[in-house]
Amino acid sequence: TQSTGSSGINAEYGHYLVVWFWRIVSRFTNEDRVALMRFVSGRSRLPNDIADVSQRFQIMKTDKSKDGLPTSQTCFFQLRLPDYTSEVIMEERLRYAIHNCRSIDADNYMLARNVENNTAGSFEDGII
Questions:
Q1: Which of left, alpha, beta for 14 (phi over 0: left; psi -120 to 50: alpha)?
Q2: Which of 10, 52, 57, 68 has the fewest C-beta atoms under 10 angstroms from its C-beta?
Q3: Are 38 and 44 in contact (CB under 8 A)?
Q4: Span 39-85, pLDDT tens digits
Q5: Which amino acids are annotated catalytic?
């Protein structure tokens, strides 16, 4: 579903960034789509029951530099896009981000901090 939220460019369904986004996604392989899902939600797939989706997917335009990398807010199921000058550049940046930006929020920071403080748990400890 091509769902968008209620603020920013999301209210403008025909906004060029939204149109470009869905055209780009239509060219994605299944692997790319899984990577996109992980990038925007922290999950590799949607739940089996649509009722378990607590947030609507949102595409937001940011004020970051033109043609920069997209970002996401996984807890809000939100993709944040800079103002791209072309669909080709947007596709290059989006593909780069979804395949190379693996940390979610502060996950890597907390993992490193726990290891330094020797507080990292394991399955044997019952702590994940």
A1: alpha
A2: 52
A3: yes
A4: 998 887 777 777 777 778 889 999 888 999 999 988 888 999 999 99
A5: 75
